[in-house]
Amino acid sequence: MFPVDLPDVEELTSGSERCLSALESGAVEDQRFGCSQVPVTRGNVFWLQVFEDGPPSSRSVLALRSPDDPDQVLALFLQDSWWSLEDVLRTASPSRTGLVPVASLAERLLVFLLSRVVERLPGEQQLFLLHPRAESCKLLWEGGAAVGFYTFKARGARVDGWSGRCYALPVLDSLQVRRSCRGRGLGLRLLEDFCSTFQEEELLGISSPLSEGLVAVLRKLLGRRRDLRDRLYEVE
Amino acid sequence: ARRNIWLGIQLGRF
Known about the structure:
The complex is a heterodimer of chains A (236) and B (14).
Chain A: H1 16-25, E1 32-33, E2 38-39, E3 45-49, E4 60-65, E5 73-78, E6 81-84, H2 85-88, E7 98-101, H3 105-117, E8 136-142, E9 145-153, E10 171-177, H4 186-197, E11 204-207, H5 212-224, H6 226-229, E12 232-235
Parallel strand pairs in A: 10-11, 11-12
Antiparallel strand pairs in A: 1-2, 3-4, 4-5, 5-6, 7-8, 8-9, 9-10
Helix pairs in contact in A: 4-5
Chain B: E1 2-4, H1 5-10
């Protein structure tokens, strides 16, 4: 079992305060994590913000960073244990295969890890902003692990919490496939899934600006799907 | 604001 397979929780910080105060008081001695035996000390542990909104108790998760590279996240404290990022992205459930709509908080955490943590190169700027907690997303599962995702806004969804403006068309907001899984048509699969989810819609939006990688996938898609050529728009 | 993606690709804008 992996964190995403455990019973759903309301918050991601179960036991974290206890873990933190044990570290602060020195109650635990010489705790180490993973094959590189990174010491779990108060100095190596920090709160990693996962969502831009929601109650403070479930906006962040306790994380372990590398003592050599403070930007590198090694593990997360979930449901009373430390888990490596690769294990957090894994599943033991055979039903998690292909594209699955995100429902649980743990699945939302996976979207966050894929978009902001595991694919980030040292010194690289963040490609995506933090997602709101209620964002519509789908995860792509392959070989027992989450390997990609896309997020979208349905037509009529609120643009923000205050102006009352709504999306005039469904918009694909962000899309990502893990580097190790690229070049196998998975990006195309994500894009086609978005288009078929909203096949009744006349126009479909892709959020601006488009990355080079996404343009390459779009070129491939539109090269063979004439029906989509008049329907896909870059939107601001 | 919106612009057609296929047209943009054809015109080399992307």
